[in-house]
Amino acid sequence: MNGKQEGPHGSLLDIYFNVVPLKVIETLNATIDGTRHDWSPADGRRESVMANSFATLLRENACFQAIESQVCAAADTWARTVLKREVSDKPLHVLRCVGPDADSQSYLRHFDSHLLTILVPLQLAPDGERNGDLIMHAFQRKANSTIANLLTKSYLFFEHGLPFFIRRVLATRDLSRAHSQRIECSPGNIYVFNGLITLHHNLDVTVGERRMLIIHHYDAGLTAGARSVTRSFRLLRDRLAGMV
Ligand SMILES: [Fe+2]
Known about the structure:
The chain is α+β, with helices and mostly antiparallel strands and 244 residues long. The chain contains six helices and ten strands. Helix 4 (146-160) runs parallel beside helix 6 (224-243). Residues 240-244 have low confidence and may be disordered.
């Protein structure tokens, strides 16, 4: 099947099936394997030449190109009607490869600073239970409520500092209460959502590696104030830690 499904996830995200040929996915994974020794950041994240070249390759696919144009146009309309602003910045490409030794990168519930996120899974971990799948939360914030967003950002900053097992318990509890949904990510499909307003995170992986290319469009510019708040918290925390 090649097409779009909104399905049971409602307005949380759109899934486009079988967009990227598996041959292309294999080529991208082989490229990562071939250059593994060149980069292995602790957080598994790279805004790299490689991520840019992967996105360029994907855009040679007419189907991918058509979907990206369509969702960008929809995001542009959303920005003009909801945020009351023009958005035109270039996309940000991130390649994220996360293994079992990067627990610190999982169960980090967050919002994106960009209003359009296109997720292209390249590889999931072989453990069916904890394979790095995407979790989408039902909670959608109001993009134009500055105070509420600062409070949310402050809470999430606090939550990100909690030990891994507590973050996992919190996220699992939300999942069991249907406050969030697990999105089965399959290489070949692409997943599109508004990460600016929709809370989301990834499961951890117990074996192997999750690899995802993430294409962000249109930085909404809402996080400048929140960034300075979290930076102040971080400085205060470091200062207090230094006093002990
Ligand atoms: Fe995100």
